Amino acid sequence: MGGALLRIILYAAVVVLPVAAAAFLGESSPSVLHEAARSMALAGFMILVLQVVLAARIKWIERAFGFDILIRFHKHMAVFAVLLLLAHPLLLALSGGGWRLLIGLDLPWYIYAGKAALVLLALNVLASLYQDRLRLKFEQWRSLHAFTAPLVIVLAFTHSWVAGDDLETASLRTIWLVMLCLAVPVFAYHRFFRPLRLKQRAFRVVEVRPEAEDVHTVKLAPPEGEEIPDYLPGQFHFVTFYRGRGLPVEEHHWTISSSPTEKGFISSTIKNLGDFTSTIWMTKTGDRAAVHGAFGRFSYALHLEEKDLVFLAGGIGITPLMSMLRHMRDTGDTRSVLLLYANRNEDQIVFQKELSEIEAGGRPALEVVHVLSRPGEIWQGETGHIDRDRILEHCGELKGKVFYVCGPPAMRQSVVTGLRELGVPDRAVRLEIFSFLD
Question: Mean of the pLDDT values across residues 387-406?
Fold first, then answer.
């Protein structure tokens, strides 16, 4: 908690630094509105630069929050930056600059640079917020984002450097240059140099195994002489497959389904959910893959004091929980775990045999309850959905239990709502929200 607070304070301090410098070291503004316009522009630019840092998967920043939380903060701060930077010209116009600043055509080039930065930023944010409605595929959105983000920063920097009195002091100009010199190498490393380095040290596919209907596990071995980076059960990594044969080359994030006790390989279990994942079955032994990770905080290993766990999974959401169960089995953990696992039918149950084997082994003290929404005629188990009544039926006393929830958005929302209705405090509910654009 202390580490997260330190990072939050540092972030806030960087954002307000130029505002404070302008207030104490710069010339006073002619009006309150002008001062507000200047402050919003200064803070907005700092947020834009820090967006690059937040998205760069820097472990020191990520490990305190989890990458899923960090990237959501990144998204919300982009919206906040747009609002600040939209307010900047409006307040300038109201403070005496005149509406010509907003609608005039005979304006200096650097004003157009600022307008272009604002338009591109707004379009970028809208594309992120409404990706599904715009029918943008993830790779299309990502390419658009990667192209426009640095352009926005360069245009915003140019505008602010030339436009007026915002950067009239040497201290503010120094801050601006330092931030630009931070953003450019961080972006270049994240987008170009690190992917190249990971490709040069690519893992090798050693097995592709079908697990259930439209689900495959891909096992990856590290390069000769190298070890698998340390990870926690339940974390995820980013993988880029290099398979040739006309197959797409895209980076995607998948949960690590293997246990950290396995030193010879690392695996992800992947469901066919789209254009790229529909090609996973075509992956062959010997193909190469760049691996970056691990990330995330959805892991019982961060909370070893918790001894009574309830895992609530839907479909492929079993993967981080399976990694945890495998780790508990391999380390001889005796804690109690109840797994409620929802699927449509029996053919879609992933890891069914292995779950039964772990349950029979007694370590951990696992109870598995399968819940099918469209079972076959011979199914003898639970039917329907995981809801508050089913949770209460199988959990009994809820006090002292901790709930780990991973599954499709509708299932996740229903389960969380049910837990709250049952009086389970938020601190006892741990969520894996796997889509970064939700």
Answer: 95
Residue carrying structure tokens 């931030």: 179
Could you tell me the two tokens for 41?
């522009």
Pinpoint the alpha helices (H) of 349-408. Answer: 352-361, 388-395
Strands of 318-362 (E only): list them.
Answer: 336-343
Looking at residue 415, its pLDDT comes to 96
E runs forming strands in 146-235: 203-212, 215-221
Phi, psi of 331 (to 5 degrees): -100, 0
Residue 136 — very low, low, confident or very high, per pLDDT cuts 50/70/90? Answer: confident
**How many CB atoms lie under 10 A from the CB of residue 312?**
28
Which of 288, 293, 295 is closest to 223 using CA atoms? 288
Contact 321, 186 (CB under 8 A): no
To the question of domain 203-295 being in CATH 1.10.150.20, the answer is no
Domain spans, the chain: 2-193, 203-295, 300-432
- What are the pLDDT digits (tens) for 321-346? 999 999 999 999 999 999 999 999 99
Report the relative pairing of strands 308-314 and 203-212 from DSSP bridges: unpaired
Q: Give the whole-angstrom CA distance, residue 279 versus residue 301.
A: 33
| Helix ranges (DSSP H) in 99-212 | 100-103, 109-129, 138-163, 170-188, 194-200
Write down the pLDDT at residue 435.
Answer: 67
Q: Which CATH number is 300-432's, of 3.40.50.2300, 3.40.50.1820, 3.40.50.80, 3.10.350.10? A: 3.40.50.80
Domain 2-193 belongs to what architecture? Answer: Up-down Bundle (1.20)
**CB neighbourhood size of 245 (10 A):** 9
CA distances from 132 to 261, 319, 434, 435, 438 (A): 38, 25, 16, 12, 10
Q: Angle 82-87-90 (CA atoms, 0-180°, nearest 5)?
A: 135
> Residue 267 forms beta bridges with which residues?
219
Residue with tokens 């895992």: 311
Give the model confidence (pLDDT) of 180-209 as tens digits.
999 999 999 999 999 999 999 999 999 999
Could you tell me if 390 and 382 are in contact, meaning their C-beta atoms sit under 8 angstroms apart?
Answer: yes
Q: How far apart are the first and last CA of the chain?
A: 25
